[in-house]
Amino acid sequence: MIRIMKKQQMSESVFVAAFLCLSGGFQDAYTFFYRGEVFANAQTGNMVLMGTSFATGDYRTGMRYLLPVLAFATGIYVAERIRRHFKYYRKIHWRQLIVIMEILFLFGVGWMPQKMDLVANMLVSFVCAMQVQSFRKVNGNAYASTMCIGNLRTATDMLCSYHVTKDKRLLDKSLLYYGFIGIFIIGAAFGGVLAKVLEAKAIWISCGLLTIAFLIMFIREDVEHKEL
Question: Among 27, 60, 147, 207, which is most exposed with the fewest C-beta within 10 angstroms?
Fold first, then answer.
């Protein structure tokens, strides 16, 4: 077995994942606290509120939750088309193109008054979907940067496996996932506070976090590969 060190683009690194989680938590808090209590990332919550609104005859409120869900689905579709089209593009990584689009859309959201909350929420949901579709692994392990339920399940499952097998690698991975959850919560905390202070333009903080992630992806890290 030969061990070879190769340079690899950092879109699946812990550093990029950390800034994406901060941004994901920030966006969710921003839309909930400033844009009419709509979730940017937690589409299950939007579906519950949509269903109960339609069931009680409040169709206007139901549409307020339905449209971000549709925007989220559209974001996944667009991100996948970008991946397929630019997967082998040499000058810039296709995930960086996704991040550029996120930054531009969110910057536009920062200029929208509250009377445009519906459009703003749709754009943020669209952005979140592109991110969750494009950034699905960190160091080869599946994770989510815009929601916590999957990370919580994986972290707890690995913690249980560690207690059974005593394999420290499982404990390290478990703590990494719990760390992502903590970072997401920190982002949400700042998002909730700053949305009340900076109002619409608070989302530009998320643009800054995504810009850092974008720049990190220009760095190439050494990754060990095994060959026979």
Answer: 60
Tokens, residue 219: 């760095």
- Output the CA angle 206-207-212, nearest 5 degrees: 95
Over residues 54-73, mean pLDDT: 93
Could you list the residue range(s) of the whole structural domain that residue 35 is in? 2-227
Whole-number Å distance between alpha carbons of 6 and 62: 51
The two structure tokens encoding residue 26: 């920030």
- Check whether 225 has a pLDDT greater than 70: no
Q: What CATH number does residue 106 fall under?
A: 1.20.1250
Q: How confident is the model at residue 68 (pLDDT cuts 50, 70, 90)?
A: very high
Give me the number of domains the chain comprises: 1
Cβ atoms within 10 Å of 14's Cβ, excluding its own: 13
CA 216 to each of CA 15, 19, 45, 198, 204: distance values in angstroms, whole numbers, following the listed order: 8, 10, 32, 27, 19
